[in-house]
Every structure is written in structure tokens, then in C-alpha cells.
Sequence to fold (707 residues):
Amino acid sequence: MLIPRESNSRRAGWCLAVAAVAVCLCLGGCAKSREPVKQPRKAGVTGLSVERRILLGGGISFGAAGPYQALAGRVHYALDPADPLNSRVADIQDARTGEDGLVHFSAEFVIAMPADPGRGNGALLYTVVNRGNFDTRLLDPEPWARVAVSPSGSGERHGRLMKQGYTLVFSGWQADLLPDTLRLHLFVPEASEDGKPLPGEVLAELGGGPGDTVAYLGADGHRAYAVDPVHADEARLRVHETYGDPGTEVERTRWSLACPDSSGRLVPDSVTLYFPEGFEPFKVYTLCYRTNRSPVMGLCFPAVRDLVAFLRGPDSLNPLLGVDGKSVIRHTLAYGSSQSGRFLRNFIYQGFNESLTGERVLDGVFANVPGCRMGFFNYRHAQPSRHFGFYPNFDFPFTHAPSTDPVTGLTGGLFQDVGKQLQPKVFCLHHSAEYWTAGAALTHVDVLGEKDLELPENVRIYLLSGTAHGHAELVKGRPGTSADNGPYLPYNPNDPGLIEVPLLEKLDRWVRFAEPPPASCYPGLDKDQLVAAEFFSFPAVPDVQPPLLVGVHPRYDWGPRFGQGILDKPLPDIGVLYPTMVPVVDDDGNEAAGIRTPWVEVPLASYTGWNYPAGWMGVENTPVLNLSGAWLPFSADRDERLRRGDSRRSVAERYKRKDIYLARVRNCAEGLVAGGLMYAEDLEGLLEQSSAMFDYVSAGGAWEAPQ
Fold:
């Protein structure tokens, strides 16, 4: 049985000096680093060191907001572990680093702001960086001269926002990133006991392609927890068929904690596993072992909370102060995509939208493609970039309003312990792929998949029909480079950014001007638009069958201290599966529910939220590729359709001429522009791509299975 969370104590290298190529241009010269200043115990931010100040585009004006500058440096924090608003951080009581009894840590940041703060629009957009990545162009003044004078559609999000006067903020929140010069880091202390780091068991999920024999114990590009050499013999390797399989142990004689050197000689290694017989593709391998270090990863939440609150306040070190000595920021928004969208769901749920002075931190939150998931963030031995599998990600509750799981008896919701005055306005955006592998339906249906649930008045949920987690660029009318992991079917090119970026501005207008946003738009059970994955039906398409095996998501039990952020069972006990509910498709293979882009509304293909790993089509246990999508063009004409046995109408049967097709695409796009769901600047580019796709598909571009 899962352990309920405790309502009042919930789960709780880089140097921004890039090569001299990025010349430091400033207004009045570069700011000198300022040492942190002492603050009262309540204050989260104790100092802000501006290490670089870059004038973008040589001082060119971004519309009414005027010239923009980018500030880069480090923010310093000190937290009182006894403060109830800080005690939610797992292990914070064991992380005091100063003689003052406080917990000290720091993070790197980048801020893009009007050179004259008073010329901004009063809105701050905090972007939760995904694995430390941010728009590194902000460290180079050169590209921005072109951006400032060019039309800015969905492809130039930051330039468009700057022309409207937004202040853009990015900062590090992950303490496990490997050092490099292109990502933003969080630097946190280790939790300790009697002067020694807290030990504990850790789970590493491993795997590889055919022939792979070596696996790193951490997520790619992240620092792994090293195996404690004293307890190395206790490590256990298991192989699992699915995430619902407890696994079979692999004998210790078949693997070792080592890495071959250039001569092939095995060298002992505390963060590498050597498996000479090779990992089997599409199976899951887990190593459970003991480590002897425990960085306080949960400080990621107060790091964001306190920076945003600081930039909204009157501290003399705040670079956003106006001539009156007050911050120019009146409204705060946050955007996060994928992992970062899950961060924002967790941030709200765990109560960090309340500042240390009791005020709301974020007024509006845009969680892009999080699915129903949370994240492995605020735990002892957390691994924030682990996003699937046996880690705490697919974890009740899923909805914003309280709901109940009759299987476990748990009741909860993201807003359950968040006072009305502290709740932000929320947009949750799903792509089709999130329904197939990330449980998106559970954000708006009950955990049994039997009924629709009512959304709170301050929450909107949207599905962008026929979209993958990302998209492939269209090259000469067809998808160019495919997604990672080698999908079997052509990757989905339907660009969600056409709708996503305008929606961000809709959220802003809801927050700043109380302008009602578009109504929620997602598939409902009451409208027969949602179905269990095992009953999903797809049109007859040659050599394509609907998914037979989707990812499984059990109710996991990590042990009795899970509510305190401690996993006593790193490899959890497995319980009853949550349902996988997916959108119903029409005769074209496209989803009827949701917001439809012109390519879905006026189709030349089926756009799916599922795909397959290369080489596995036709096998009964073919797994769906996580967070993927496919593009399945129609036949060129009726003869080809009948010859191929395709049930979908051909291009020639739909559109008598190319100009008729393009006119319909234009009409659909103009309707979206009129409704504020697409930018007029994107129209011509869309028509150009649509023309190329029409030429390719009508010339016989239907997908053929490789021989």
C-alpha cells in the first residue's frame, strides 16, 4: 500500500565567463561582483553577484521597451531550517553549513531586462531551465540586432517577449549537473550526520543498445551517486521486462563495477557497471546500491521561490529597482516544459508558492507537457533528471482539485494545502504523446478512468491534437531529422509551438488584465473522446498497427518514510496499475478533440502521439516509444489507396487542386490568428511548408515499410 504524504511536512564548475568571444559590453561598464551581505534569518537571498552585464545588439531598441541588457552571475541564499516554510525540504535539518545555524547555498542566474527597468511592462517571466539549459545567445550581444528588427513569431519567443517589455529570468535549480560552461547550476551542501554525509541506498536504471556492455550509474550529463566501496559487495543488479515487473536478479559473477580502459583492461570504477554479455534492448536493468553522499537536492524549490520573491522586493541589490527604489515587477509568471513543467507542478503542490513573508510568489504558471507526473526532486538521494521508471514521478495526486484513489484510500490534489490567495492561475498543456506514455488523462479524469473531473476555476488544460513531445523539422515536404532513440515510423513534424507560444501570452493577459483565457480544450469521457489504450482503434494503414504495448504505471510503495522524502525501498513494491487513457481518432487517424493546428484540421497525413522503436514493428510485444509521435501520409490518389489497402481518403480525393488545399490551410490559420491562438507572422511560413508537403505527398510520398 502507498504511504500518504504528511500534509505539514511533505516530501520534502560552471563559471559564466565564457571565452572572450562574447565581449562584455555594459551600460557604464561591467558591474563588479558584490559579496553577499548579512540579512535577517528570515531572508532567503543574502546577496546577488553580477559578474557580467551585456548590452544586447549594441544597444538597439526592442520597441517601446528600449535597449535590453543581460546580467549573469550568482545568487546567494541562507535559510533557517526551523522556519516551517523551509522545513519542507528533505534533510534540511542536517544541512547547516554556517556558524549562524543556517543553510547556505547558491545558484547561477541570467536575467534579460530593459536597460532602463522603468520601460518594462512590469511582468517577470521565470523560465525553469530544463537540465540547466537556457538561451545561451543571451551571453552574446551579436544575434539580437537582427532579432530586434525582425518579425517575431512563435520561433523567436524570447525576442517577441522582449519587444513587449518582459523581464526574463533563468537560474540553476539542479545540483547534479556535471560542470560545463553552457548550463546553469545549483550548488548545495551535503546533508550530514555526526560530521559524515548521510548514507543510503540508491537505484540506478541502466540499459543500452545492442552490443553495449558499459553503463554509467547516473543520468546522461549528470553526476552519479558513487557506490560506497565498503558496501560494494551488497549491490544488486536486476533485469525487468517492464516497469511492472519486480525483476530477476543477475548473478554477481556476470557483472562488475568497473570500466575497460583503452587497452581493454578492467579498471575498478565506482560509477560504472560492466556487463560483458551485453544489455538486451528494450529491457530495464536496475542496480540497487549503497552510497555515502547526500546533497540536499530539495533546495531547488526555495532557490526558485526566494529568487523570484527577491526580484519583486525592495532590496538594494535587486537590479530591477526603479527610480523610486521599488521593484518594477508587479506580476510574475513561470514557464516550464517537460521536466521543468513537472517541477512547477511539484513547486505548487509542496507549498513553495508562498514566500518567506507569506506572499504569493508566482501569479501565473504555464506547465508545458508535464503529463500527470511530478518529479524526483525533493528527496534524499534525489535524481531530478530521472523521469520514468521506478522513481517517484508517476505519483498520486495528479489533479489540481482534491480527488481520491479508491485503491489506496489516498485523497489529495496539487492545491489541497495551498490557500486560495497563494494559488496561481495555471495553464497545463498536453501534447498527444503525453496521453500515451505520461498519463495526461489523469489530470482531468479519475484514477480509475471512469469519469471526468471538474477543474478549478483558475486552471485550464489544453491538448494540442496530433503532437509528439517534440517535433521534426520539415525538409522538402517531409520530416527531416527524426527524434532520438530511432523511431520506426517517420517522426511527427506538427509544430506545437505555433499554438503554445500564443497561449503563453494568453496566460499573461489573464494574470495582468483578468482577460478570460480560452476555455479548456481536451478529450472527455462524456463526449466519447477518450478510451483505454487497449481499446484504441486506428484506421487501416499498410504495415501500421495501433500500439499493442504501452508503458505501464503501477502504484508504487517506496516505504514508510516516503512522506518525509526518504525512499526506504529504492526499488519499490509494485501495486495496481493506473489506467492509460488516450484520445479517440477520426477516420483520418487524427484526434478530434483538442486544439487542432492547420495540418491536423486540413490534413495530408495522420499525426500520432505514438511511434515504435526501429526494427520492432509487427512483433506482438512491440513497445511504444516514450513521448514520441509519427507522421503517416495519405496515398496520392484513389488507385494507390486501393492498391495499398489504406482506408483513409487519398490526397486527390480530398483536394482537387493544390490551391484549394492551400486556401483551406490559410482559412484555418486565419481563424486561429483571429482567436489569438496563432501569430500572423507565422502564416506565410506555414503556407510555404504546407505547399512543400502537398507536393511531396501527392507525388506518392506515402510511407512504405522498409524491406
